[in-house]
Design a protein that fits this description.
With 417 residues, the protein is an alpha/beta fold. It has four domains: 10-26 and 181-324, MoaB/Mog-like domain (Molybdenum Cofactor Biosythetic Enzyme, Chain A, 3-Layer(aba) Sandwich); 28-50 and 153-180, Molybdopterin biosynthesis moea protein, domain 2, CATH 3.90.105; 55-142, Molybdopterin biosynthesis moea protein, domain 3 (Molybdopterin biosynthesis moeA protein, domain 3); 333-413, MoeA, C-terminal, domain IV (Beta-clip, Beta Barrel). It has helices at residues 10-20, 163-171, 210-220, 235-248, 266-273, 306-324, and strands at residues 27-31, 44-45, 55-56, 60-63, 77-85, 99-103, 115-118, 122-125, 128-131, 141-142, 153-155, 176-180, 184-189, 194-195, 206-207, 224-227, 251-255, 275-279, 283-284, 290-294, 297-302, 333-339, 351-359, 362-365, 381-385, 397-402. Strands 7-4-6-5-9-8 form a six-stranded mixed beta sheet, with no helix packed on it. Strands 16-13-17-21-20-18 form a six-stranded mixed beta sheet, with helices on both faces. A five-stranded mixed beta barrel has the order 22-24-23-25-26. A hairpin with a 2-residue loop joins strand 23 and strand 24. Helix 1 (10-20) crosses helix 6 (306-324), helix 3 runs parallel beside helix 6 (306-324) and helix 4 packs across helix 5. The longest helix is centred in the C-terminal third of the chain and has 19 residues, at 306-324. The chain starts with 9 loop residues before the first helix and ends in a 15-residue tail after the last strand.
Length: 417
């Protein structure tokens, strides 16, 4: 048995990790069709305005605004229809006084026209349109550069690309965008008893699942999981695997072997690999967590129990991944709920990560022990209870971190108890 180092609070652990986390600097060009959620590596300025001319925003009739001045229902302004305009075909002859063209949404205004009225606003008789009120200039018109002007910055360096930004780049004629590469994260499960799913198990062996659950968290936070087969309980093999993973990944996660048992080798290996930031966090679950840094890259030793590793991933791994990938926010939004039942007791000395299934404003605590991966099925929120908190009671209002999909399950997937 080895003792833990001095336990650090979850706030201290988070600060130390984020302080040394280096956002990925590699860049690559990707098609716009694959760019949603990626982070721009450079600013982009529009090479031309959009729209490049005045265009109709509705279906209707285009004409001169001045010709409708003084128009009433008894004495409407009358216009003779002289042509049609479609989004892909214009009318190039200048409109004269008393002339109009039928125009489709997106159509280019013909020379001389400065406004329009929709079909429902006019009277139509044969080839003549009657307008019974004054229509101001620019009505239902998108003027040149109304969307963006030539030289306008459409995307800045470090902007996360949302659907509208992707569309803006497409409107500027782009097919690709330069983005920062997604962080690569090696997952090294450790334990003699672990077997890759799909292979036969014997005796006391169990299937390894952290590659799957932690890999899902990695994907959901914009990074690329690099799974590895389970490592045996051997310090030299673990060290060799960690050193190799550091050459191919931006972050190395060692799951299992991080506690103080005889076969827990992470506390022995990580000081040989880099500078230890801490060993042990004052939190439950997830107390046996260790972190080290070498060459600007982090190695994080997490508990091997599936629920402990996954609960740690909500509050610790998610923000770290987002920092590495330059994504905004911690990976959750703040909210609150009322507890659906009593009986969950905080700790006197440790913070407690309380996983919850929030449905219609009610939070259902979900925890079946650190060994049970199903204990977090359906979870879509978590709360961190400070050391020494009072026992929780039904109906109590609780501040929570709401996990968006796909990390958090949608409320309708609430499992039956």
């Amino acid at each position: 048995m080895r003792p833990f180092g001095k336990l650090v609070s979850i706030d201290v652990a988070m600060r130390r990790i984020l302080a040394v986390a280096r956002p990925v600097a590699r860049t690559e060009s990707v098609p716009l069709t694959e760019s949603l959620g990626r982070v721009s590596a450079e600013a982009f300025r529009a090479p031309f305005p959009v729209p490049q001319c005045d265009r109709a925003t509705w279906d209707g009739y285009a004409f001169r605004s001045a010709s409708t001045r003084g128009a009433t229902s008894r004495h409407p302004a009358r216009f003779r229809i002289v042509g049609e305009v479609f989004a892909d075909r214009g009318y190039n002859r200048p409109l004269g006084t008393g002339e109009t063209v039928a125009i489709a949404a997106g159509g280019r205004l013909p020379p001389g026209a400065d406004t329009m009225a929709i079909f429902e606003e006019v009277g139509l008789h044969d080839q003549e349109v009657a307008v019974s009120r004054y229509i101001r200039a620019g009505n239902r018109i998108a003027g040149m550069a109304a969307d963006f002007r030539r030289g306008q910055v459409l995307v800045r360096r470090n902007d996360a690309l949302d659907p509208a930004t992707v569309g803006s780049l497409g409107a500027a004629g782009q097919t690709e965008v330069r983005v920062f590469a997604c962080p690569r994260v090696s997952i090294l499960p450790n334990g003699n008893e672990l077997v890759v799913p799909g292979h036969p198990i014997h005796g006391d062996q169990i299937y390894e699942t952290n590659n799957l659950t932690i890999g899902a968290i990695i994907l959901a936070n914009g990074a690329i999981p690099v799974p590895h087969s389970p490592l045996p309980d051997d310090a030299d093999q673990i060290e060799a695997a960690v050193r190799q993973a550091l050459t191919e990944s931006d972050l190395v996660l060692l799951t299992g072997g991080s506690s103080v048992g005889e076969h827990d080798y992470a506390p022995e290996v990580l000081p040989r690999v880099g500078r230890v930031l801490f060993h042990g966090i004052a939190v439950r679950p997830g107390k046996p967590t260790i972190a080290a840094v070498t060459g600007g890259r982090l190695v994080l030793g997490m508990p091997g129990h599936p629920t402990s590793a996954l609960a740690n991933s909500f509050w610790l791994l998610g923000p770290l991944l987002r920092r590495l990938g330059r994504l905004p926010g911690p990976g959750w939004v703040e909210g609150s709920c009322r507890l659906a039942r009593s009986g969950d007791h905080p700790s006197r000395d440790l913070s407690v990560v309380l996983a919850l299934r929030v449905v219609d404003g009610w939070g259902y605590p979900s925890y079946h022990g650190s060994h049970a991966v199903t204990g977090l099925r359906g979870v879509n929120a978590f709360a961190i209870l400070p050391p020494g908190s009072k026992a929780l009671r039904r109906g109590q209002r609780l501040a929570v971190h709401l996990l968006p999909e796909p990390v958090g399950a949608p409320p309708q997937s609430l499992p039956s108890d």
